Each structure stands twice: as structure tokens, then as C-alpha cells.
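Work Package 4 report. The design task specified in the project plan requires that, given a folded chain encoded as C-alpha cells, an amino acid be chosen for each position. We show below one input record used in the internal validation round.
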């Protein structure tokens, strides 16, 4: 193909390839399109090759970006410029890497910013597991249930948006779970061409928004 391809694997699991980035970018663009105004504070869970984070920073309404990554090596690759998007992500004063377990932070009262306990955000975007039912770690399962989603929602401002990437087609049962917790929930299909198989492929971005009035959910 005459191009350099970057991939990230965890054991035998393929996490991301630079050949297929349309849905990772769409995660950022679709979620932020739901938010009016400026001075937006955003969390990205899962750094990977950095395409979702880059998509967030392309939006001039974004004031700050916290990028949570559980693999220290991935952060190191970006900071050292091993990965193509690393220099831009590290140079942008709005963005900051946080080494940690996104799912543990989502379930905690302290939240995602180690310098600001219980800080709330306008958007939280997640690209870690393959889908809500295909997990890299079985311990992540509670996050995708109503109890875990309520804890996540407590880290969002009123009217804040949760966005989730999935490698699978839309799952009505998961959209229904989102609707139990959030005022709005829907699934967006993202279709792109797979040059290796010479066919179109469809992934999903789930979007959900807190009620505009302050939510009653509390982080347990």
C-alpha cells in the first residue's frame, strides 16, 4: 500500500490500527457537536494512537482535555514522538495525559483529574473495549450496566455528553441501558471502507446526554 501502518496490541488483542480511524474521529466530532457554547472540558478514556484526542483538540470550543490511559508505554510513545500524533498532542497546552485505570476512576468519587477532586466535565468519551459486550477485562463489565453508567454520569455537568466507541453494530439493549440513566441516548453508525478486504465496514458511536437540570446520581 506504500504507507506506514501503526498498530497497538495488548497480548493477542488488536486495539487499534492507523488504517481504520474514521469511527475514532467520529466519536469526538459527534459528541462535541451535541454541546453548545465554548470553554468545554473533556475527558478521553483510552489514548491509543490518539485519533479521538486529536479530534477533540480540533474543536476550538474545547478549553481542556484530560486523556486517561492505563498503559504507561502508550503515553511514553506519544511523549517521545514514536507515534505520529504524539508531538501535536503533547504540545497542545489544553491536553494532559493521566496514567490510570479509566474504569476505576469512573467508579470513584475523586474522578479523572488528580489535581481537582470530583471535577465535572462537559464530555467524557471512551474508546477502550471492543464493545459493551466484548471486553478486554471482565472486570470492566459493571461500567456498562446502569449502576456503572450512573457513576459515570455523576462526573458530567448537567447537559454533559457521554460518547462510547464500539467495534460492533448498534446494540439496542445497550442503548436501552443508556436511556435508563441519561435523558437522551442513541447509536450512530459509522461506515468506512476497509482497504484490506475491499469492502465497507460499520462500527458504532453511542451518544448519551445528562438532563439539563442537575442529576441526582451520586458516585458510590
Amino acid at each position: 500500500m506504500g504507507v506506514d501502518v501503526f498498530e497497538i496490541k495488548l497480548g493477542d488483542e488488536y486495539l487499534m490500527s492507523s488504517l481504520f480511524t474514521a469511527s475514532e474521529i467520529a466519536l469526538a466530532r459527534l459528541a462535541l457537536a451535541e454541546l453548545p457554547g465554548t470553554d468545554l472540558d473533556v475527558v478521553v478514556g483510552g489514548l491509543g494512537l490518539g485519533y479521538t484526542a486529536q479530534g477533540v483538540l480540533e474543536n476550538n470550543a474545547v478549553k481542556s482535555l484530560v486523556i486517561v490511559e492505563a498503559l504507561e508505554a502508550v503515553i511514553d510513545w506519544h511523549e517521545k514522538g514514536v507515534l505520529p500524533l504524539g508531538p501535536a498532542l503533547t504540545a497542545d497546552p489544553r491536553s494532559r495525559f493521566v496514567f490510570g485505570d479509566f474504569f476505576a476512576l469512573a467508579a470513584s468519587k475523586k474522578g479523572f483529574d488528580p489535581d481537582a477532586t470530583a471535577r465535572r466535565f462537559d464530555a467524557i468519551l471512551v474508546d477502550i473495549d471492543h464493545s459493551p459486550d466484548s471486553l478486554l477485562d471482565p472486570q470492566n463489565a459493571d461500567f456498562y450496566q446502569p449502576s456503572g453508567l450512573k457513576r459515570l454520569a455523576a462526573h458530567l455537568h448537567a447537559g454533559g455528553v457521554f460518547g462510547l466507541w464500539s467495534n460492533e453494530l448498534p446494540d439496542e439493549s445497550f442503548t436501552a441501558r443508556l436511556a435508563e440513566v441519561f435523558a437522551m441516548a442513541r447509536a450512530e453508525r459509522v461506515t468506512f471502507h476497509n482497504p484490506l478486504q475491499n469492502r465497507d465496514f460499520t462500527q458504532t458511536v453511542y451518544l448519551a446526554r445528562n438532563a439539563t437540570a442537575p442529576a441526582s446520581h451520586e458516585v458510590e
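The domain at 21-209 is CATH 3.40.50.150 (Rossmann fold). Validation will be extended to a larger panel in the next phase.
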